[in-house]
Each structure stands twice: as structure tokens, then as C-alpha cells.
Amino acid sequence: MRCAIAMILLLAVSSAADAATLRVPADYATIQSALDASAMGDTVLVGTGTYTSFTTVGLFNTAALMPDGVVIVGEFGAAQTTIDLSLAGGLPGGAAAFTCSGHISGATVVDGFRVTGYPPNSVGVSMAASAAVSVLNCIFEVEDPAVPDVSTPRRGIGTWKSEVYVRNCEFIRCMGNSGAAIRDNSGSTVVESCTFIECENQAISAYGDLGAGPWFLEVRNCLFDRTFSDLGGGAIQASDRPNGIIVEGCEFRGVEAAINGSALSLSGFGEWQIVNNLFVDINMETGRNVLSLTGGRPLLVAGNTFAYCQQSAGTGVAISTFQSLWTLENNIFAHIYGGAALDVHFGPAAGCNVFWDTPEGVGYNLR
């Protein structure tokens, strides 16, 4: 046993010793040339500047085709390190700033870049069949187009059958037919301490084209500011997350959806927790609501504040749900106008909730 442990430690030390740091543009003229020379465990440091070169891979262009297990860092942060995609459009498959495919190490990291110059059908980070890729401290900013067209996505992050960890990123005016900022197809996503501003058609969309799988979605300590959707879920739409959905410590301000769930539209399987969030200044059309919840057993809605939320007419301004196994406790409903605060078909297990200035009433006899 001691020999085995010693061998593991020796290999770990050897791997760390073999790791290299490659610098752009000091050692390599382009980001891709540095990545081509890198190996698992290496770090590519990208200096101050705007980078416009790209590589054609099949039917799309990418600024950085990432090797598995490589860490790429904007050395002086996103404010000084920009990937400009304006020259990378024109191919049927679109364009991506960073591309990860088949990564299994769990060690790939993209850190400290600003992505801009989005052409139609483009994405900041593209992932397929990859495990535990981290995207940190990045800015994904779409210039405000004269005529927004969500049918030609300009997305922050797009994943397929992948796991992604996103922290301390900003998504500004991203757009798409769904998941304008982050679109997770049949995978798992963790989002922490991020800001979403004026993203159109669901800031975050997590769904499963492949049916139910061992997937989850966790969103914590994020700001959603004036995000919008022509569909349900102006900020977050999620379905088919059997391993759970957690939305915690977030602020939803002025979000809007044309259908239900101006802030959240959740459906499918798994345990859901919606806790300690602020939903404020949300104005809706007739019959809309802040939270639309269908599925998710058991469901916990606790410690949230709903303030200055209103619809033209209807009921269930704050919450609409068909849940039969759920808990509603320690929430504050204040200044709820245009309909009753709740539209529920099965009564929750209710703790202490505060309803203040809700002229149309609670909507259910909580006992």
C-alpha cells in the first residue's frame, strides 16, 4: 500500500513538473498556435489585446480549439483580453470563440476573456460530450443590433451532453431561440455569481432532447436584469433534471416572458429548491406569473421575497403550480397586484409566510 501511495505521489509531482506555461503573443503569435503546442496540464497565458484570428474546423470557425485539460487565461482579465468574432462568420456551422469536444479530464478551464463581435449563429464557448469544463471571469457581450433576430443565435455558452461550471461571468444582450446566455442540452450546469443583462429568449435554458438523464441545474447568487423570452421562463427555463434544480440567492429584476414564468418556468422530474431569492419589479400580461412550476416533486419554495409584481388580470401573480407535494415557508409577498398571489391546485405544507398589500388576496387558504 505504501509503495502504491508513493507511486501516486511521484506521478502527481512529475505531472506538475512537466506542466508548461505558453505565452501569447510573446512565445506564440496566435492563440491557436499556442494551444496546438500545449498538452494536458499546461497553461496558455494570453496577453493584453484583441484577437481576431480563427481556425476552420469542418463547417465552423473557432478562435480556440481547446485540447483536453489545458487552462487558458487572459493574463490581465476580461477587461484587457478580447476575442473578436466579427471576422469568423460565414460558414454554415457558425462560429465559436472557444470549442471543447470530448474532454474527459475535468481540468479544462477558460478564464478571463471578453467575447464580442458576434456574427449570426455564433457562441462564446461551445461544448460537446465534455466533463466538468470551467468558464470563469468572462464577459460575453453582443452589440445591440439594429434589428434583433433571435433565430440566428449570438449565445454565451452552448453545451451538448456536457458538464459545465460557470462562475463570475457577465452575459450582456445575448440572444437565441432559447437559452440566450447559457443553453444546456442533455447535460448538467452549475452557475454561480453571474450577471445576465437584457438577454433575449431565456437567459438560461436546460432541457433534455435525449429524454430523462442524470442531469441537474444549480443557479446561485446571480442577477437577472431585464431578461426576456417569447416563450416561458424569462430568466430560467428548465425541464428533465432528474438530479434536481436549485435556484438560490438570486435577484430577478424586471424580467419578462410572453407565456408563463416571467422569472422561472420549470417542468419535468426531480427535486426542486427555490430558496432565498428576490423577485422584484415584474410586470406581466393577463394570466402570467412569476414562477410557473409543473413537476418537481418534492418542491421547496422558501425564504423568497416577491415585491411589486403585477399582471393585467388573472390569478397566481407570484406562483402558479400543479404540485401535489410541496412546501411554502418563510416567503414574503408584498405589493402583488392584478390577481391573487397564488394559483395552486394542491395545498402546500405551509410555514410562516407574509402577505402584505395583496388586494386580490392569497388565492388559497393556507393552514
How many helices? The count is 2
Strand percentage lies at: 35-45%
Evaluate the radius of gyration: 22 Å
Approximately how much helix is present in the residues?
A: under 10%
Structural description of this entry:
Helix content is 6%, strand content 44%. The chain is built from two helices and 39 strands.
Strand and helix layout:
Layout: H1 2-18, E1 21-24, H2 31-36, E2 43-46, E3 49-51, E4 55-57, E5 60-65, E6 71-74, E7 81-84, E8 95-101, E9 109-111, E10 114-116, E11 122-128, E12 133-136, E13 139-141, E14 154-160, E15 163-167, E16 170-172, E17 182-185, E18 188-192, E19 195-197, E20 204-207, E21 217-220, E22 223-225, E23 228-229, E24 236-239, E25 245-248, E26 251-253, E27 256-257, E28 264-268, E29 272-275, E30 278-284, E31 291-295, E32 299-302, E33 305-311, E34 319-321, E35 326-329, E36 332-337, E37 342-344, E38 349-350, E39 354-356
Parallel strand pairs: 1-2, 2-6, 3-7, 5-8, 6-9, 7-10, 8-11, 9-12, 10-13, 11-14, 12-15, 13-16, 14-17, 15-18, 16-19, 17-20, 18-21, 19-22, 20-24, 21-25, 22-26, 23-27, 24-28, 25-29, 26-30, 28-31, 29-32, 30-33, 31-34, 32-35, 33-36, 34-37, 35-38, 36-39
Antiparallel strand pairs: 4-5
Concise synopsis of the structure shown:
By secondary structure, the chain is mainly β. It has two helices and 39 strands.
Task: Fill in the keyword field for this structure.
13-stranded parallel sheet, 367 residues, elongated, mainly beta, twelve-stranded parallel sheet
